[in-house]
């Protein structure tokens, strides 16, 4: 039994060796996956997977040093990819095709993929291949401290291309040939290269946000961007180019050449022009522009355009090789020139380093001051600065030009010339200027600001001034001790600080563009923090807005249009308190919300009035109910009886007890009842009302209060007592007929107190009458 088990692996090994021997001599575009894996056409998925795992371990390039191990491993992986997919396997069984006419891992340019990963859920074998790591990758291995201290600061000068890999990452083998080719090209262009092994630098991988292997990402200006395309040389090259800012190089033609070159004074930078035949800006030139963006302004001239013919003729450009010109203060003649058919990065870097500054640059910030006038380190490395303190007005132009002319003749490496605007750098100028001497020679002694200096003379650009300055420089060369003044120089103001806002806007735009791109192409694990933030915001929105919307649906009255409010000002009330009462007119529009659909426990206090008594009664009504406006369950309205008298009659008919009272007061039905000054407390939910009737208090002191009237009208005992005293009824009617309007609401405050106590009688009605139309005035 044991012998039979051992015969199967031996047979498989024999078959694999035969395949290797024949494959080495006869390599074809198609492979036989069954022969590669050594399985039959009827093999199950479990058998195929088992054989594949065993062969993958055996032929992995890190474990097998056979020269053909890498090719064999790729064939094994490709064979498993075909046989593990039922559709691909069926296609191969029927037609003998693998549907792969391109090299493995390749892709047509322009076809976009969410990722370039392969299923490796069963690839995680407990083997340590650290000692067998590819030597080409070993020199690029990054550690966390190295990334933070070296890569991030350096990414502000050049972009970095970083590969995330791990031990036994078989998918990493598929992209390795392309990666090596891209690294070889990008490194010569100046792109930084890095490799992160997740197995040994998990902290750095988490810091970068890389959760899968293989992954490729770019780092520029300290910001990480993931690569989401198929792994191909063209795609990776385009990815590096897209990392760079979009406004590094300006296109220059015959129309804008003067504008470009003459901006040296405003930007305080030399300008570089590259002449070349290709229509697109070369990547090497873009990378150079990014590395020296703080020192130089870059432009590109396409020699193939007719709009650049005058420029080529003006500077006598050779069309057979790329040409690079540097312009400083003189825009008619380049300060330096380089021309070569194959420009190398080292030559370009040396060319740029030698032309980083103008002949006489303006000190605009502390960084430029530190580079132009460095701190003394050794005796033989002394650097002296000749500083002209001037202004930007037209009157200083002649002296400034003379100073530039004098500086252009300087041949000493130890002397640098610069100028400063007194108006913009006043603290520095106050220290250096003595006796109005505007030319100063100084030497910086330490980074804290200590400097030795000597004022030379005032400067107006005359020959005497030039001769005096020349003599002082010759004396300085013989005796440095002539710098006999010392001072602590303040830090220079940043004159380009206002440009920070523009740079911030550009940076924000680039950041938003990358965020959108990441959202579209990130895998789910990388998007979890963003998704968590979005769902949290949606939850808060649901808890505040949506629930409130449901409440409005539950109480439709809140969605009805609100009518104009009658606001009465109470001047006698304290100003710090709410000094008005909001009273809404009860109309067919507000009827549903203010009465029929009124919330449970809420009541609407309705004053009945006419057009003639409106102003007087509302003012009195506001004063009487003001002390009750603090209650959230009370609403105040008024009803115009001239418009809705029929509603009032119908309401009192529904309320049988109230009808009985009004019938007593209706003189045989011949006299129409006057409801002016009545107040109705309406409970829309429980369908009852409490009634206030005006009572005269000016002459008849024996007349009952409104509360008593309401109580008498509501109880049977009180009704029977009224029948026993008919004379009082007639006296009350006569008093009501002669009652003045402003006395009708005298007892409303007492009635409101009893309403709040709940001691008033309630008149229940079967349903609220409609208030659909206005009663015509007769």
UniProtKB/TrEMBL annotation:
Residues 699-738 are annotated as: Disordered. The chain crosses the membrane at residues 530-553. Coiled coil: none annotated. The keyword Zinc-finger does not apply. Keywords: Autophagy, Glycoprotein, Membrane, Signal, Transmembrane, Transmembrane helix. One of its GO terms (cellular component) is endoplasmic reticulum membrane. Residues 32-96 form the J domain. Pfam families: DnaJ, Thioredoxin. SMART domains: DnaJ (SM00271). PROSITE patterns: DNAJ_1 (PS00636), DNAJ_2 (PS50076). Plays an important role in regulating the size of autophagosomes during the formation process. This is DnaJ homolog subfamily C member 16. It comes from Sparus aurata. The gene is DNAJC16.
């Amino acid at each position: 039994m044991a012998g039979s088990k051992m015969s199967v692996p031996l047979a498989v090994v024999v078959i694999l060796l035969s395949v290797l021997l024949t494959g080495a001599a006869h390599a074809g575009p198609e492979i036989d996956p069954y022969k590669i894996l050594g399985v039959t056409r009827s093999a199950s998925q479990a058998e195929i997977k088992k054989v594949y795992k065993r062969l993958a371990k055996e032929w992995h390039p890190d474990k097998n040093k056979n020269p053909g191990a890498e090719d064999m491993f790729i064939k094994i992986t490709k064979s498993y990819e075909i046989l593990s997919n039922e559709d691909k396997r069926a296609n191969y069984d029927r037609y003998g095709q693998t549907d792969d006419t391109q090299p493995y891992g390749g892709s047509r340019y322009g076809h976009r993929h969410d990722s370039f990963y392969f299923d490796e859920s069963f690839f995680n074998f407990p083997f340590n291949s650290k000692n067998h790591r590819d030597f080409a990758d070993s020199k690029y291995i990054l550690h966390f401290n190295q990334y933070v201290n070296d890569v991030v600061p350096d990414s502000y000068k050049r972009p970095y291309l970083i590969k995330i890999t791990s031990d036994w990452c078989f998918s990493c083998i598929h992209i390795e040939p392309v990666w090596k080719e891209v690294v070889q090209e990008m490194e010569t262009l100046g792109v930084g290269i890095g490799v992160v092994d997740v197995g040994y630098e998990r902290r750095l991988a988490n810091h970068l946000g890389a959760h899968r292997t293989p992954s490729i990402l770019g780092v520029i200006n300290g910001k990480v961007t993931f690569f989401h395309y198929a792994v191909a040389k063209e795609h990776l090259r385009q990815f590096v180019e897209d990392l760079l800012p979009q406004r590094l190089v300006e296109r220059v033609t015959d129309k804008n050449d003067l504008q470009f070159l003459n901006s040296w004074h405003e930007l305080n930078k030399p300008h570089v022009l590259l002449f070349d035949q290709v229509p697109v800006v070369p990547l090497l030139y873009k990378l150079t522009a990014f590395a020296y963006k703080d020192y130089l302004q870059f432009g590109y001239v396409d020699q193939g355009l007719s709009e650049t013919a005058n420029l080529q003729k003006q500077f006598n450009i050779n069309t057979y090789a790329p040409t690079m010109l540097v312009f400083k203060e003189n825009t008619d003649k380049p300060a330096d020139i380089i021309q070569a058919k194959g420009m190398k990065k080292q030559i370009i870097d040396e060319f740029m380093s030698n032309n980083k500054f103008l002949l006489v640059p303006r000190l605009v910030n502390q960084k430029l001051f530190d580079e132009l006038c460095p701190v003394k380190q050794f005796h033989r490395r002394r650097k002296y600065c000749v500083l002209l303190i001037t202004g930007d007005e037209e009157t200083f132009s002649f002296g400034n030009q003379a100073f530039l002319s004098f500086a252009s003749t300087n041949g000493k490496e130890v002397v640098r010339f610069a100028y400063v605007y007194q108006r913009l750098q006043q603290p520095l100028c106050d220290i250096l200027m003595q006796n109005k001497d505007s030319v100063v020679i100084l030497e910086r002694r330490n980074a804290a600001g200590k400097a030795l200096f000597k004022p030379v003379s005032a400067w107006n650009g005359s020959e005497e001034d030039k001769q005096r300055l020349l003599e002082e420089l010759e004396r300085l060369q013989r005796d440095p001790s002539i710098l006999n003044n010392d001072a602590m120089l303040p830090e220079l103001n940043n004159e380009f600080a206002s440009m920070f806002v523009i740079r911030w806007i550009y940076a924000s735009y680039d950041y938003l563009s990358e965020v959108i791109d990441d959202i579209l192409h990130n895998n789910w694990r990388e998007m979890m923090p963003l998704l968590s933030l979005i769902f949290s915001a949606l939850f808060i929105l649901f808890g505040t807005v949506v629930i409130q919307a449901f409440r409005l649906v539950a109480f439709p009255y809140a969605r009805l249009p609100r009518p104009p409010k009658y606001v009465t000002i109470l001047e006698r009330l304290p100003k710090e308190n709410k000094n008005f009462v909001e009273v809404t007119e009860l109309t067919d529009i507000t009827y549903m919300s203010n009465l029929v659909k009124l919330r449970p426990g809420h009541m609407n206090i309705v004053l009945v009035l006419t057009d003639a008594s409106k102003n007087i009664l509302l003012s009195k009504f506001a004063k009487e109910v003001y002390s009750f406006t603090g209650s959230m369950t009370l609403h105040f309205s008024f009803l115009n009886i001239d418009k809705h008298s029929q509603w009032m009659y119908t309401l009192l008919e529904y309320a049988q007890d109230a009808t009985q009272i009004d019938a007593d007061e209706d003189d045989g039905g011949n006299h129409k009842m006057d409801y002016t000054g009545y107040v109705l407390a309406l409970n829309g939910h429980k369908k009852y009302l409490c009634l206030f009737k005006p009572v005269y208090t000016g002459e008849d002191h024996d007349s009952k209060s409104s509360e008593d009237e309401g109580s008498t009208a509501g109880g049977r005992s009180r009704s029977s007592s009224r029948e026993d005293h008919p004379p009082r009824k007639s006296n009350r009617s006569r008093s009501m007929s002669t009652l003045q309007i402003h006395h009708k609401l005298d007892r409303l405050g007492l009635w409101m107190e009893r309403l709040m106590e709940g001691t008033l009688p309630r008149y229940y009605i079967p349903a609220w009458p409609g208030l659909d139309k206005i009663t015509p005035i007769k």
